[in-house]
């Protein structure tokens, strides 16, 4: 019997099939055909819960910035002196200054040399000559040994002078010994002092000068390293450049004096040491001291340049910090808008979830009540389509047929803010500090406030219009409020959009823009049949306001309300104001959306004041506001108001 090898099938890429009840299958596959509101792509059936649940996207964990620390770099060892970068810029200048400031014999001069290597070689040749390295090894070694002995025992010439008698025969012998140790052979008393005393003092001074020359020349690499570092750090600092040039000139001058010292005749140095006294090699000592003072001055200039840079960096950091704070504020506003959008999307998905579960419950009830042996109907029943309303905020906004009046008006009035504040002499700015205004803005419940002005507006706006503009912009920038605004003075008979109906339509459009929820209540459809009726528009505004969560206060600012107290506008205006005041009164006693209403009038009103029913806690008269001698600009006033809120 032949055995066939089993065929290995590739794993299927199709998802695993799960069997659901007929009602679940109907909702997932056919319910969308009846109405677009049943968007089942946002829900899924949960076996554990026995119902449909919303598919909520995972919350963002936020943007994280990796902790990247800049590795600290250790300062490298100084480069060889001849390879340091500063020579290219300073060598020629320093050599030119040296030639202008001092003169020296050509045999000791280094002014014809063009690089430090040549100067160093010239100095080393002079040192070798001074240290007897150019003589035979035996002689040079012996003379260096004698010098070392005498460096440690300065009293030898004096002791020899005491042992050998001071006579014409012994004088030449002492002179030869003194000559070998760089002192004078002259043994004649000078001013009553014996020559041996001069010899000891002279040799001691000569030894000190020689040691000072050696130590100063050995410190040159450290000086050059400072010049190279400071010039690289403060590349364009003229103070550091000048101090570095002065130091190089001092080094060149000291090198020439050192070459002169090293190559001078030994007997000449001995005579100079005896007769010069403390002034022995004064030029050389002074040039060596100049190196130290120039090096100190370079360090001082570098320190001051460092402090100057630190001051500039601190100022720049302060400016950058202000920019960062401003950027953080804008980011906070943007994140607030994003969170608001996510909240709206979540509510939309929960609304779909509840809708689908209601249908699911109806289908399950129908299945349970279905008779198992019920006869089939004689004719199929005509399915009744589900007439559930669906309307997006954009579609509703398009039916309002009104532009963004608030944005145009805010931009226009903000351009005249400075003029209005100066005209009003600061009274409108003081309103925000008054107790009635503070009570209106600080209250956690719905409140209303009517502001009566005491001046006649020459144009379409007044100082109160500027105050409403600042309030509206501040509320909107915080990201925590919905700010509605309407300027009656900007929409009179000469404008295409004027009257109470335009006012309520504009407020509705602003709500739809600032709170673009993903779904609208079915009650909205009842208002669509008669969008030309002002009472219907007020009902629509009330319905939209009821969909806003209580955590988001709604602030409504209406400026220039006295402009609509005319025969042409009074009826529609009164209807809108009455309905807005009713919203304040109803919301203040329940858990509905917090609704704050502020009406501003450049002159006292009659009809509007009656609506407030004589409530003195809701009426603010500007005639009680004193005139201020100083006013502040729009931006500063807005910052102060934002800080207060």
Description:
Pfam families: NPHP3_N. Keywords: Repeat. It is a single chain. By secondary structure, this protein is mainly α. The chain has helices spanning 22-29, 87-101, 116-130, 137-152, 156-163, 171-180, 195-218, 220-233, 238-263, 266-276, 282-369, 393-400, 405-414, 417-424, 427-430, 435-442, 463-478, 500-514, 523-528, 534-546, 570-587, 607-611, 634-644, and strands spanning 43-46, 51-54, 447-452, 482-487, 554-559, 595-601, 619-621. The chain folds into 2 domains: 81-317, no CATH class; 393-644, Rossmann fold (3-Layer(aba) Sandwich). Strand 1 and strand 2 form a beta hairpin. Helix 3 (116-130) packs parallel to helix 9 (238-263). The longest helix has 88 residues, at 282-369. The two termini are 93 Å apart.
Question: Which helices and strands occur, and which strands form pairs?
Answer:
Layout: H1 22-29, E1 43-46, E2 51-54, H2 87-101, H3 116-130, H4 137-152, H5 156-163, H6 171-180, H7 195-218, H8 220-233, H9 238-263, H10 266-276, H11 282-369, H12 393-400, H13 405-414, H14 417-424, H15 427-430, H16 435-442, E3 447-452, H17 463-478, E4 482-487, H18 500-514, H19 523-528, H20 534-546, E5 554-559, H21 570-587, E6 595-601, H22 607-611, E7 619-621, H23 634-644
Parallel strand pairs: 3-6, 3-7, 4-5, 5-6
Antiparallel strand pairs: 1-2
């Amino acid at each position: 019997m032949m055995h066939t090898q089993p065929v290995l099938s590739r794993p299927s890429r199709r998802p695993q099939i799960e069997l659901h009840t007929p009602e679940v299958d109907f909702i997932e596959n056919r319910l969308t055909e009846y109405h677009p509101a049943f968007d089942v792509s946002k829900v899924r059936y949960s076996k554990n819960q026995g119902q449909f649940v919303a598919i909520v996207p995972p919350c963002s964990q936020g943007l994280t910035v990796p902790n990247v620390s800049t590795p600290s770099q250790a300062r490298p060892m100084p480069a060889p002196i001849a390879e340091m970068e500063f020579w290219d810029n300073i060598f020629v200048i320093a050599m030119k200054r040296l030639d202008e400031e001092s003169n020296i014999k050509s045999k000791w001069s280094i002014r014809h040399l063009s690089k430090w290597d040549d100067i160093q070689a010239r100095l080393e040749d002079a040192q070798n000559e001074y240290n007897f390295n150019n003589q035979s090894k035996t002689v040079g070694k012996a003379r260096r040994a004698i010098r070392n002995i005498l460096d440690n025992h300065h009293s030898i010439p004096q002791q020899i002078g005491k042992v050998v008698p001071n006579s014409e025969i012994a004088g030449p012998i002492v002179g030869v010994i003194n000559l070998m140790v760089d002192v004078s052979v002259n043994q004649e008393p000078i001013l009553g002092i014996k020559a041996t005393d001069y010899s000891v003092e002279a040799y001691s001074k000569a030894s000190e000068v020689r040691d000072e020359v050696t130590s100063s020349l050995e410190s040159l690499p450290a000086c050059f390293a400072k010049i190279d570092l400071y010039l690289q750090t403060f590349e364009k600092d003229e103070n550091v450049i000048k101090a570095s040039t002065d130091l190089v000139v001092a080094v060149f001058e000291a090198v020439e004096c050192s070459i002169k010292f090293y190559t001078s005749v030994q007997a000449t140095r001995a005579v100079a040491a005896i007769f010069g006294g403390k002034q022995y090699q004064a030029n050389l000592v002074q040039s060596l001291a100049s190196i130290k003072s120039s090096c100190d001055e370079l360090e001082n200039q570098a320190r001051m340049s460092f402090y100057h840079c630190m001051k500039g960096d601190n100022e720049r950091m302060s400016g950058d910090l202000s920019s960062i704070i401003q950027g953080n504020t804008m980011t906070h506003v943007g994140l607030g808008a994003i969170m608001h959008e996510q909240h709206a999307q979540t509510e939309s998905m929960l609304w779909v979830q509840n809708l689908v579960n209601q249908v699911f419950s109806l289908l399950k009830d129908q299945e349970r009540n279905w008779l198992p042996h019920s006869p089939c109907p004689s004719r199929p029943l005509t399915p009744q389509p589900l007439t559930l309303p669906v309307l997006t905020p954009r579609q509703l906004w398009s039916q309002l047929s009104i532009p963004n009046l608030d944005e145009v008006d805010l931009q226009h009035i903000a351009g005249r803010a400075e003029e209005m504040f100066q005209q009003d002499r600061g009274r409108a700015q003081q309103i925000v500090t008054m107790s009635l205004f503070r009570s209106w803005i600080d209250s956690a419940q719905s409140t209303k406030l009517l502001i009566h002005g005491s001046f006649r507006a020459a144009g379409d706006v007044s100082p109160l219009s500027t105050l409403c503009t600042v309030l509206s912009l501040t509320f909107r920038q915080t990201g925590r409020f919905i700010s509605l605004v309407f300027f009656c003075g900007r929409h009179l008979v000469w404008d295409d959009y004027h009257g109470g109906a335009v006012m309520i339509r504009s407020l509705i459009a602003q709500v739809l823009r600032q709170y673009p929820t993903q779904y609208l209540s079915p009650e909205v459809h009842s208002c669509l049949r008669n969008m030309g009726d002002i009472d219907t528009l007020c009902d629509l505004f009330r319905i939209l306001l009821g969909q806003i969560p209580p955590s988001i206060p709604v602030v409504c600012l209406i400026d220039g309300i006295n402009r609509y107290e005319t025969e042409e506008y009074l009826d529609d205006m009164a209807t809108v104001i009455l309905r807005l005041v009713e919203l304040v009164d109803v919301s203040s006693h329940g858990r509905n959306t917090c609704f704050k209403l502020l009406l501003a009038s450049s002159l006292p009103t009659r009809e509007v004041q009656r609506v407030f029913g004589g409530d003195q806690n809701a009426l603010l008269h500007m005639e009680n506001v004193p005139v201020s001698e100083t006013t502040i600009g729009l931006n500063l006033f807005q910052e102060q108001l934002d800080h207060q809120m």
